[in-house]
Amino acid sequence: MILQQLQNYLRTHPQTSLAELTHHFLTHHFQSDADALRGMLVQLIRKGRVRKLAGKQCGGCHSCAPESLELYEWVNPNS
Predict the structure, then answer these.
(1) What is the pLDDT of residues 24-77, one digit of tens each?
(2) Which residues lie below 8 Å from residue 67, measured CB to CB, with a gap of 6+?
(3) Which residues, other chains included, contact 65 with Cβ-Cβ below 8 Å and sequence gap of 6+?
(4) Rounded CA separation 67/32 (Å)
(5) Beta-carbon neighbour count of residue 51 at 10 Å?
(6) Which domains does the chain have, with CATH numbers?
(7) 2 versus 68: which is more confidently predicted?
(8) 76: which of 14, 22, 49, 63 lies 20 to 30 Å off by Cα?
């Protein structure tokens, strides 16, 4: 069920960060942390529905949360 909701979110937000996903799922659905969502994203990557994008380059201040720089994109052609 959570995996289906994750796919639905990615269909409507084709490029998103792990931080945005974590915030959305904590606020609206389930108590899912970044590691749990990352595991689900790996499943979707294996199925060819999602790809991990090259992370944004930070200015070097190290104050950005790593999850905000971890980006994913919905690529399922059958959506």
Answers:
(1) 877 766 667 888 899 999 999 999 999 999 866 666 666 666 567 789 999 976
(2) 17, 18, 19, 22, 34
(3) 19
(4) 14
(5) 13
(6) 2-74 (1.10.10.10)
(7) 2
(8) 22
Tokens 């790809």 sit on residue: 51
Match 């690529």 to its residue by tokens.
75
**What pLDDT is recorded for position 1?**
64
The closest alpha carbon to 74, from 46, 48, 43, belongs to 48
Sign of CA dihedral 25, 74, 55, 1: positive
The strand pair at 15-17 and 71-74 is best described as: antiparallel
pTM: 0.78
> What pLDDT, on the 0 to 100 scale, is given for residue 42?
96
14-39 burial, b at 16+ Cβ within 10 Å, e below that, comes to: eebbbbbbbebbeeeeeebebeebbe
